[in-house]
Amino acid sequence: MSLVEKIYKKKFKGIPIVQESIEVPKNVPTRKILSPPKGKDGLFIQPKDSSAEREVVERHNRERFAGHFKFADPLTGAPNTYDERGDYNCGRCNQANGKECLLVDVDNLDLDAGSCGDWEVICAADPEMKLYLKSPKGAGYGVAENGKGFGCSRCPYASKAYQPDSRGRELYCGKGDFRTYGTACCVLNGAPTK
Ligand code: SF4
Ligand code: SF4
Fold this sequence. Notes:
Layout: E1 4-7, E2 11-12, E3 15-16, E4 19-22, H1 52-69, E5 96-97, E6 100-101, E7 114-115, H2 136-139, E8 142-143, E9 158-160, E10 171-173, E11 178-180
Antiparallel strand pairs: 1-4, 2-3, 5-6, 7-8, 9-10, 10-11
The structure holds iron/sulfur cluster (SF4) (2 copies).
One iron/sulfur cluster (SF4) binds at residues 90, 93, 95-96, 101, 103-104, 106, 109, 114-116, 118-119, 139, 141.
């Protein structure tokens, strides 16, 4: 018998709403809560372990960041949110329409050094819509002081990896506890902004 039972107790505007009642089996494993050591700077301390087992841990940590912080690299996260140049600047984003953004309510984009967590690769097969629905704060919009953009290579939370992983990730992210490419990025990027 299925553990999932569909119930229709609630209604919205007269329409029965589908809910699932799930009977949770007893004595099943539950998830762990991990707490790797941190340094005085509040960042995770880079382990010297470069085994295959460690790579499994890091892969999961990257996926966590993809889910919560829009992390992307060539093998993680949404493919169209990875910038192979590692700049993630508005001038090379699919949402930029001249100096306005179709998604974020910014009408004077800094095309060279502005960016946000919703950066997308320019692609003719990905039509956009005039939404203007995200606030700059909600999207994490900022203009990099460096005048060039973001990327892990410009993030103060990244340090040199003791050893690149098996895919050549050369940096270590102290916010997420994984190795990363300099061209990857996430919305937590700490590059100074104007
Ligand atoms: S604000 Fe964000 S979504 Fe808009 S153009 Fe810049 S990077 Fe793209
Ligand atoms: S190094 Fe910075 S930008 Fe890269 S994943 Fe870590 S927090 Fe995000």
